[in-house]
Structures are given as structure tokens and as C-alpha cells.
Amino acid sequence: MQIIIQGLLLSGLYALIAMGFTLIFSVGRVLNLAYGAYLLIGGYVYFTISQTLGVPKLIGLLLAAVVGCLVGLLKYRLLVKPLKGDHVAVEISTLILAVVLQAGVVFLYGDSSKILLPIVPGVTQVAGASVTYNLLTATIASWAILIGLYFFVRKTHVGRAMQAVSMDTKGAAISGVDPDKINMFTWGLSGALGATAGVFFASYTQLSPSMWVAPLIISVAVVIVGGIGSIIGTLIVAHIVGFMEVLAVSVIAPELRGVFTMLLIIGVLVIRPQGLFGREEL
Amino acid sequence: MNLRWTHVVMWLAFVALMFAIPEFVSKGTLRTLIFANFLAIFAISWDVLSGRTGYISFGHPFLIGIGAYTSAILTKRFDVPIEFAIPAAVVMTMIGGIIVFLPALRIKGSYFALVTLAFMELMYQLVQVIRPDLTGGTRGMSGVQTLTRGAVNGYYLSVSLMLAVALSMWLLMRTQLGTALSAVGMNEESVRGSGLSTTKLKLFAFLTSAFVAGLGGAFYVHYLGSIAPRALFDINFLFTIIVAALIGGASTIIGPVIGAFFLTFLLEYLRPYLPGAERYFIYGLIALLLYMYEPKGLIALIDKGWQRLRGAADRKETV
């Protein structure tokens, strides 16, 4: 029971982390290796605003999302667009950017990790398992955001334009959708999602300049295993990854928590490169 | 293989220059140079695989780590003489290279890069958990037998190794095999269409790259005398290798060497002005700007500058 609850909570968080990465991969067709850096930025912006300056937490969270969105837009304008969809170049330059941002955070905040106070303090007992309100909030927020995103992509004009661009950029352009605008929008949205996820992730683990690597690997795993850009696939695989980690930690050994995720990535990519759920478009 | 006498002269000059350096510089600079030499070896290894065939490896520390760990474990835990431990490490790394090669049979591009990244993280986590009595767990190992004492000897060893690797790779890449490897990077289908086995070519590239990585990794651990998983299987280390190869100029041999020396000395020269962590920030930013400005690397910039100088000279003559 403990495992199921822990697994559900962790998976919700992972789904939120992976979502922004999926969006970029699906619409822009590029791997944003600096995605983890949004989480880094989100976490530290929230830390500065809410914990150091004492501004209300919700405002801190919103500001973190806004900064993440801005970073995403800047990244698209300054990095991705000039490289004109050269995939290798985008991957390498985003990797360099992530390292630069990490160094920037070390410069501003120092090398040591910081504890982020829980966003919602308190612990409750659910069926014998202790659940922090913090993680519970993260999971609920994550579900709310995912459901909102799902309907946004399905029902609104912009969402459908995003779908169109992810299916066929040229076709979308012919139908009067400006792929550039949609890309801009997606990068901003992805940044905001990443930064929000970063606040929750940082309050779940801790703030440290190298905290961007683990979420990046998780997002990569979720996207690869789930197939590109399907929201439902992302959700399912986030649960597979989350449960695998919880099982590994509680049944085998805490040190092995990431091992099965890596094995899953390697296994799926080698055996079924199109992902478990195929190439559904968004 | 078309060798011209200018090539021979340039190589001789390069070798002579590298061997003359200890006469002119301080011990501290020599230590920096030793690191640059090893970085150059790793960058060449990365370039042989990724620069040529276009299969971007984000997991090179995985290969280097296999080489370093095998040699360190053999000498420290089993008292194997270094002369046998290093070849064994190279063989193990080549087996590791085959493991990395298997996914490349089916996937390419971004997906391949991700698998290699996963390999590196997997190795990082496994090394700490499986047989910590052998690998030293999270803290790694120290007191590994070293090959040389003092900066000067260490420099000569590393520079000889680097030059040997650079020269043999340079010669190799000038053969038809080297041309075929570059062709795989340009268009795999048309290479297959020309009746060449791309599988064999790719396997060859992976094995060569792993060979160099294993050699470099093993010698590196016997130079440092210690090994730690966090320093080795680290994105920053990976970043330095890739950026050295790219900034210098991918799919050349001299490019990664130039890149490695440029990066190492950039970091060293920033030290007096920016002593703290901001150094890495500036350093990464310079790397990013250079890469965005000229993805072909420093060697293309030098070449362009040279062409312009020559162009100016030619114009003067005609006028």
C-alpha cells in the first residue's frame, strides 16, 4: 500500500517534469538538453523570492513560471532559431547552455545544496503511509496542469495549431498557421511548465546546482519510452518510471533507484525505437 | 594515401615543438599541458566516432571510465603489473565499445545520443553499488600505482601518447577507410548503395574510438593515481570533451588537439581574473558563442584568416 501511494505521488511529479520536454520534442522536433535547466531556474527563483525575500508562495511560484517562460523564449530566439533546425547543433548547444546555466547558479548561490522549505507543510496518514502535503500538492497540481494541457491542445485554436505543426510543419504553414509563432509559444509554455515542475521537484529533493541532470534523464526516459509527444503516453510512462523507482528503492536497495530507468531507456530504444505507444501526435 | 612533403614537415615541426616545451615553461604550466594532452586524446577518440560518422556520443565518459576502472582495479586489487593491466583495460573498453555499437545498428541521430547518455548514467550508478569492495564505491579509489614521477616525466609520457594517437589516427583517416567513415556521416544510405557495409564501417569506428578512449583512460588513471565516479561520469567532463572536439574543428585530427589546448588554457588564464565559480560561466559562454559563430571550429577560423591574408597578398601582386 505504501508503495502504491508513494508511487502514485512520485509519478505525478514525474509526469509534470516530463510534460514540457515532450511538448518541445513533439512540436519543435528538437531535443532540448537544457530542459533540466528550467527546473534549476524555477527552483532557485522560487527560493530567492519566497524563502529569502518572504513574498507569498503562490506569487513565488508564478514568478518562477514567468522566468522559466522568458528563458524558454530567449532560448528559442537566440539559440534554436539561428541554428535552423540542425538537430545535432541544437542538442550540443543546449547541452553547453545547460552547463553554462549551472555555472551561473553556482556563481550566484554557491556550490552547496539548499533545503527548500515545503510549499505546503504538514504530514498526513493515508492507509498507513505517511504522505507529506507537499508532495500531495505537487501531484494534484501536476494532474490539474496535465488535464488542462490535454484540453488546451485538443480544444483551443492554438492547441490545434500546435498539433498541426507537430504533424507536418509545411502543411501547417500552408493552412495559415505560422509555425514560428507556434514554436515560440511552445518554447515559452515548456519553460513555464519546467520551472513550475522545478519548484515542486526542488521541494521534494533539494536545491543544488546539479539538480537538473536527474529530471532531464527522467524526461528523456518518459519521452522515449512513451513515444514522441503523446500526452497520454507521457502520463502512463511517468507512472511506469515512478513505480519502478519506488519499487527499486523499497524492495531492492536505495542506491539502485535510477538503474532501472536507464535499463528501460536502453532496452526500449534498442528493441522498439518508436516507443511503447508509437508516434501518436500530441 | 596521399602524403605530401609539407605534411611530413608540419608533423615534424609539431612534434619538435611539443617536445621542446618543457625547456621553456614552469612546472605548473606543464601540469596544465598534461591535462590538455589527455583531453586531446579523449577529444580525438570522440571525434573518430562522432565527428566522422555522425553518431553523436554523449556517453564517452562511459568508455573512458571502463578503461580507467579496469586498469585501476587490476593493478590495485589484483596486483597485476601495469604492462598487462593497460592492454587488458583497452580490450575491456573495446568490448564496451561493442555494447555501445549495438544500439547504433537500429537507431541514429538524437535517439542514439540519448542511449549513450543513459549508458553513462547507468555506469555511474552501477559503479557505486556493485562490488564497492572492488570499485571503491562512491568515494572511488586512491593510491593507484602511477607510471611517472614529476611533471616533466608526466609531460613526456602524455605528449608521446597524444602524438602517437594523433599521428596514427591522422594516417588512418587519410586511407580509403577514413574516407568511407566520413561518407557514413554524410549519407549512410548512399554508402550502402555504393556496396560498402555500413555496419562493418560503423563497428570499425566504434572499436577505434573505444581503443583510443581505453588507452587514454588507463594512462590517465595511472597519471592521476586516483579515480572518483563523480568526476568521471560527469556531464561537465563530457561537455569538455565534446566542446574540445567541436571548438577545435570536428572531423579533423589537429582540430580536437587545438580545441583541447585552447579550452585548457582558457580555463587556466581566466583563473587570475575570475578565481571562483564564475570562471566556468564565462568559459562555457565563450564555448557557446564560438560554437554558434563557427560550428566548424577554430580550425575553420584559422583557415579563413589564412585565406584572407593570402587573398590580400595575391591582390597586391596583381595590382
Structure description:
The complex is a heterodimer of chains A (282) and B (319). Chain A is 73% helix and 3% strand. Chain A has 282 residues and is mainly alpha-helical. In chain A, a hairpin with a 2-residue loop joins strand 1 and strand 2. The longest helix of chain A has 26 residues. The relative contact order of chain A is 0.20. Chain B has 319 residues and is mainly alpha-helical. Chain B has a domain of 221 residues. The longest helix of chain B is centred in the N-terminal third of the chain and has 27 residues. The relative contact order of chain B is 0.16. Classes of the chains: A mainly alpha (282), B mainly alpha (319). At the A-B interface, helix 4, helix 9 and helix 11 of A face helix 5, helix 12 and helix 14 of B.
Number of strands of chain B: 2
Alpha carbon gap, first and last residue of chain B: 39 Å
The biggest beta sheet of chain B is recorded as: 2 strands, antiparallel
Please mark out the parts of chain B with pLDDT under 50 across 5 or more consecutive residues, or reply none: none
Q: What coarse outline of chain B follows from CA principal-axis ratios? A: globular
Termini separation of chain A comes to 33 Å
The ordered string of helix (H) and strand (E) elements of chain A is HHHHEEHHHHHHH
Oligomerization state: heterodimer
| Total beta strands of chain A | 2
What's the CATH architecture name of chain A? Orthogonal Bundle
The total number of structural domains of chain A is 1
| Mean pLDDT reading of chain B | 81
Percentage of helical residues of chain B? over 70%
